[in-house]
Amino acid sequence: MDPLDPTSTGAPADAPADTPAAQLGKRARNRLAVEADILRVAREHLATDGAAALSLRAVARDLGMVSSGIYRYVESRDELLTRLIVDSYWSLAAAVRSAHDTVPPDDLEARWDSVGRALRAWAINRPHDFALIYGSPVPDYEAPSERTEEPGTAVLVLLVALLDDVRAAGRLADPRWLGLVPARAETGVGAMLESPMFAATRLDAVDLTQGLAAWTLLLGAVTSEIFAQLGPVPDGEALFECLLAASRRCVIAPVGD
Q1: CATH of the domain at 119
Q2: Does pTM top 0.85 for this prediction?
Q3: How many Å separate Cα 59 from the centre of its chain?
Q4: Which of the two ends of the chain, N or C, has the fewest CB atoms closer than 10 A to its terminal CB?
Q5: What is the domain range of residue 245?
């Protein structure tokens, strides 16, 4: 269990999963508090200096800690970046899941829209965290897949379930509307369907390609706004709602089609 997973108890990784933080010893509680402070200050440095310039010594200095002392809690800059990335992914997933779960399961359009709006709201509220996970790679750093894959795909797992529900309801948009060629879709993404993420679904390569088109448009809409890639936009929210509707149309056919 990753201690930064918001579904965890906050206990150390070697503690039983059902151990409340209040039952931990004083030393363990103090360690958790220090680690939380380290992440808090590290996020401040992300905002002012960027991920590439993140420095354990600078974080230690801002915490009033001797530079060598921080290594008792974080072994390297790469480890700190990994913790920040994992924390950001789980935070985004929790925000998206919370919004999605307020919508009735049979309201497919509203479920899609809730995901998109929650993604945008989270990114606007935490732009530097968004940049860390969806921006340019950090030089000389490679995220460990064994720690980042699960949190990094948590939103996609939710969208795969939604896409499968759209398929089951007979509401998938006509792929010809997107100009999709089944043979190309199979070549492009067919092997991805072997992932455990799709084990409980009946999605095929064309379905998945439609979903990826919709997600790419949705993520691109948020990315272009956060990074101001389009320059000054008169009304960012209005533009986003247009692109959200377009992304939804990639996968969900209007009732009556």
Answers
A1: 1.10.357.10
A2: yes
A3: 25
A4: C
A5: 77-251
